[in-house]
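[09:14] KT: can someone run the structure on this one? pasting the chain below
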Amino acid sequence: MNFRKREKGMDEKKLGPLLSDEQFFGECLNLDYPGMEAVKEAVADKDYSLAKKEMASYIRKTLDADRFFEIPYEIPENIYKLPGESDAKAAERICNHTLVSVGVPCEYGKENTVDWEANPTYNGYKEWTWQLSRHNDIKLLAHEYNKTRNEKLAYAAAELMDSWMKQAVCPDADCAGYKTKCWRTIECGIRMGANWPYILFTFYKTPAFTDDILIDWYKSVYEHGERLSKNHMTGNWLIMEMNGLGQIGILYPQFKKSEKWLQQALESLEEELDRQIYPDGFQYELTTNYHDVVINNYQRFIEVAYKFGKTIPDTLLEKLSRACELDIKLMMPDGKTPDLNDGCRRDVKGSYEIRKRIIPNDKRAKWITEGDETGEPEYTSAAMPWSGFAALRTGWEQDDTWALMDAAPFGRAHQHEDKLSVLLYTNGKFLLTEGGNYAYDESEMRNYVLSTRSHNTVRVDGQDQNRRKTYAWKEEDIKKKSNLEWNFSKKWDYAKSAYDEGYGEDQDKAPVHERAIYFYRDKNQPLLITVDRLSDTKSSSKTHNWDILWHIDSEVEKQTDEYIRFADADIAWSNGETSIIVGQETPEWQGFIATGTKQGMYRAVPCVDTKVNANAVRIVTVLTPHKAGTQCKHLVGVKASSDAVNMDITLIFDDGSEWALNEEELRKLA
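[09:31] RB: done, structure tokens below
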């Protein structure tokens, strides 16, 4: 469709929507749709003023708000409120034209029109402008209106929507989905699939939502449909885009293309489950955040489809159920997912409380939300052979200990350079932690969390892993297994993998890091043994400077040449020189963790750095957690040959006792 062109010199804030009345009524609407007779007659007479009046009347008569609001309210995502702010206070602030995006407020002034392309951040953080156009704040106004029926909120919402539709002009048909400030296709999908439906079904009968606003709304929705249908992207964006496109097809059946768009969305959503989800259930970006974003967008689409009489294939639901269980496989004892890559710590039970509305007979949902023991997993520890993670645990209770090894391929997006990193949650604390997920800006902290040095793995000659440089996803990779090796038993869990994909800017592939972990599954005295074998595949004599890193979120109580005692754990190593780095910014950042995704949300944490200059060497590191302030036997040393082929390990404790172990035997026990 050819939208009317901008006239040279026209005020951009008065251009949207681009569809003319003649185009909208003549080319976009199915005037033979039941109930549209009066609209059709007015269009036949080319009386578009009357056509708009009749169309607005038709909308008010036929929208089924009662049916829509049977779907429970979903709190918008991202940071659109101030810390500690109630919905009522936030609504008042929004009415006064102070808007918050990514946690940063912008005070436009009550008498001024909001500039939807503004960016008030100190460093030009692009996410501020992009996420503002998701309209989380306007959805909040709608939710508060449904609680109070305060018409002031309706008028504020109408004014904001009107200003956005006028200012935010739909881009040309050949504009890529990732471009523009207000019309990236991810925002289009979120508006159509999460926020705009709730806003429309809340306000469509209010005096504030005039005939003109309703018609502009429908014009803009049609423009969204065209853009989502033609300019969609891939990955998690595509799922959000198709959720939005599918909801247009369901909620706006008067459009000529509604059925076509719905079928496109439905077919794409089912195909993407095979294209994006590994056989073990993890979405191919390998981040717990976007894994759940994908599931949430399926959920939104399916719930609207169910309520408005559409059918969802059983095969789609079965595949989606497998993806849902991934959260359980990864779940820490506190009931949350670990924030892998650009991940998040999301409450798994809370997620399943929502998911069981679309998969009500799912046995895992019944177990985690209702305590139905028949749905308890047959496994305790879990290996994910394709996505490459091993989650090790002593049990499923809150006071259990959990460890994780990352042997994953490089994710499809939102990746960190972190292969072979290890995590540990114990005694109610994420003890062995890592940099985490931080704001998507260009700061040193963002660069740090993406890098190898913010994870519990190995650097070589001061260089990070560098898979990103030559990474290219191939469709067949979704069926390819990782190089994870594992064995689990009642006493010991074992997992092993290797990294040989290059370090540094030159992607030097001579250095190879092989890591094996042995997790002792005694609930009262768990321990984690990590064995690193470091070598150069091109030279038997060339040595490298290896840094073995451990980010331990605890206070240092004692440091020696053989062990470090923390308030919550002891760590000891077989050889090498060890130091502790906390909150270092020069010559490079080290010893920090993110505390949130808002800019500035991070703090210092001790990073134990064991340095070794060698080739073909074995380093054994042992971590023994304990409850802070309690009396217990402490680890004070590890004896293990540096010979890479040697398999013997001896743990030394402060009471003079020793525990002799052998890797081969542990692998068999495991």
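[09:33] KT: thanks! The domain at 12-276 is CATH 1.50.10.100 (Glycosyltransferase).
[09:34] RB: yep, looked fine to me
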